[in-house]
Amino acid sequence: MKEGKVMDNEKKTNWNIRPYLAMGLTAFIVIATSIVFYFFIARYSGASKFISLVIKALQPILVGVFLGYLLNPLVNRIQEFINRKIEKETKFAKWIKSSSRGIGIIIAMLLLIIAVSALVWLIGPQLYTTIEGLIVTLPTQAKNTINWLKEVIQQNDALEKYAETIITEVTAFTQNLLKTEVIPRTKEIVTQVTGGILVVAKGLINFIIGMIVCIYVLAEKDHFKGIFKKALYAFWPTKAANAILKTARKSDKIFGGFIAGKILDSIIIGILTYIILLIFRIPYPVLVSVIVGVTNVIPFFGPYIGAVPSTLLVLLASPIKAFYFIIILVVIQQIDGNIIGPKILGNSTGLSSFWVVFAIMLFGGVFGFWGMLFGVPVFGVIYFIIDNISEYFLKKKNMPLHSEDYNEIDTVDPETHKIKNK
């Protein structure tokens, strides 16, 4: 009898250990494969060239998928609104209901075209005028700023000595740079400018093609979802497929809420900055508002990145107004961080302020600008997956799931898993 009980206990132990070993082995294989794949791309130039070539070829598709992802919530709401408002079961009503998805796509695409056209029409000419005026008045503004600095320096003998040394060194460095770098590379610079114009033109063509692709993506959304789920349940165990679907839905919620929220938040901040700059008559309101709005898309560090070039622009025109501008920017960012941002974004990523900064530093350091832009939602998904795995093991042990419940824990009994508080 004792031998039978020992055998039963061994079987139970083995049965309990297998899932943990399988999950650990799977995690190890995924991590090891990812590391090998990364170093393969980094070390083997042929692979990186091939991947960059594929990405360039698929740029219109990627633009279309991104636009479709952004517009899909709007299309869904229009579709739901049409189906909810039409109650009578007439032939005309049935046709509208069956075509509600197509109507939603048409309205969403028209709104996108109107928004882009209005942005170009309103901002384009003013931005061009501002840059043109900046180029014309920059020498005078720079001269006035230098004269102002001279007046300040002349009042302090120690500063004057340092200033003369710095000016001499900067002048020599600039002359040497012009002789050795700028003038000999004039042809290369012209070629780069021409290439930049071609890149802009290609980007415009990719955007137009992307809009066409976007229509197909929105129209075939349900079909694509069906293909994904079919493949998922065909090649994965049912429990694993269910977990992947749950993670995919959460990822969609995190990315969708974050991207749409940040775009709307940045538009509001750009408009608010423009209005306040007009009221206080700060120079270059259009250009500065565009810089502040665009950089605001980057979480946490975006306002500081946009503040540097914006302040330098205003400083060239008026040092006193540059001081006012810094105060205005601080006030606007406080309003955004404490009122506008939380109202729009809510807690879409589920991350605390520390993890937001951690994600930006980590992904920004590894992947540059795109890492800073998308690092927060990516880390939000990783955090969600780790949190779900930890909850799975805690449920097995019948232990609390919330972190707050562990603040006062001293130890846990290894046999019964009962908590001993301090």
What does this structure look like?
Helix 9 runs antiparallel to helix 12 and helix 11 packs antiparallel against helix 12. The relative contact order is 0.06. The longest helix is centred in the N-terminal third of the chain and has 55 residues. Helix content is 85%, strand content 2%. It has 14 helices and two strands; from the N terminus they run H-H-H-H-H-H-H-H-H-H-H-H-H-H-E-E. The protein has a two-stranded antiparallel sheet with strand order 1-2. It has 422 residues and is mostly helical. The chain is globular, with a radius of gyration of 29 Å. Strand 1 and strand 2 form a beta hairpin.
Report on the biggest sheet.
2 strands, antiparallel
Termini, distance in Å? 43 Å
Q: Helical proportion?
A: over 70%
The strand line-up of the biggest sheet is 1-2
Overall 3D geometry?
Answer: globular
Radius of gyration: 29 Å
Q: Bin the strand percentage.
A: under 5%
Mean pLDDT: 76
- Low-confidence parts: 1-17
Give the ordered list of helices and strands: HHHHHHHHHHHHHHEE
**Structure classification:** mainly alpha
Number of helices: 14
Q: Count the strands?
A: 2
